[in-house]
Automatic annotation (TrEMBL):
<protein>
    <recommendedName>
        <fullName>PH domain-containing protein</fullName>
    </recommendedName>
</protein>
Length: 100
């Protein structure tokens, strides 16, 4: 884990919250004996599986994640994504504008 500010600048792996999804794992879905697990999923990268010591820590992480997503979306203002239509397979741009 990062021990000082410099460590945050040298992270080997960074996830943008507006391009990632946090998913809390149900007890029945655990892949091993660990409890209080969650996934961070991003497109084009392998999902990362994490666990914490207590249920309370997991709830704090989930809450902080949602707050971070809201803050990132408000800061972005708008974002355009390249998409392909399901019916015709044509390329298009999808712009989400939160400044309205």
């Amino acid at each position: 884990p990062p021990l000082n500010i410099g460590d945050w600048l040298e992270c080997g792996l960074v996830f943008k919250v507006y391009q990632s999804m946090l998913r809390v794992i149900k007890d029945s879905e655990n892949v091993d004996e660990r409890q209080h697990c969650f996934l961070i999923q991003t497109s084009g990268q392998e999902s990362r599986y994490f666990s914490v010591e207590t249920r309370q820590e997991l709830l704090r992480i989930e809450s902080a994640w949602h707050c971070s997503v809201c803050a990132a979306v408000m800061k972005l203002g708008s974002k355009t994504f390249n998409v392909t239509t399901a019916t015709g397979g044509t390329s298009a741009g999808l712009t989400l504008d939160w400044n309205l």
